[in-house]
Amino acid sequence: MKLGDICKYLPTSTVGKVLDLRDRDGESWALLDFTGLWYDTSLLVPADAGEYKEVKFKYRKSSPREDIRSIEDLLKGEGDVDISGFTPSGGG
Hints:
Elements: E1 6-9, E2 14-24, E3 27-32, E4 38-40, E5 44-46, H1 64-76
Antiparallel strand pairs: 1-2, 1-5, 2-3, 3-4
């Protein structure tokens, strides 16, 4: 395995390009671009180029300040507020 190789992580079928390699405590690790996470190389296998999707970033159209203002409007009950961009969270 070398930098630039396309690999698949067997447990999750995550496919990514190897950005970095390291050995730590007797184990080898590879950094995949798809997730930005380190994977144990013993669980990585070569993947077909057709399985790989290039990583692209998607930027939000609104700024965080606009989201905060929208939340305040929602709490006040003023006008219609688009909540499609909010992520649900909470304990439960």
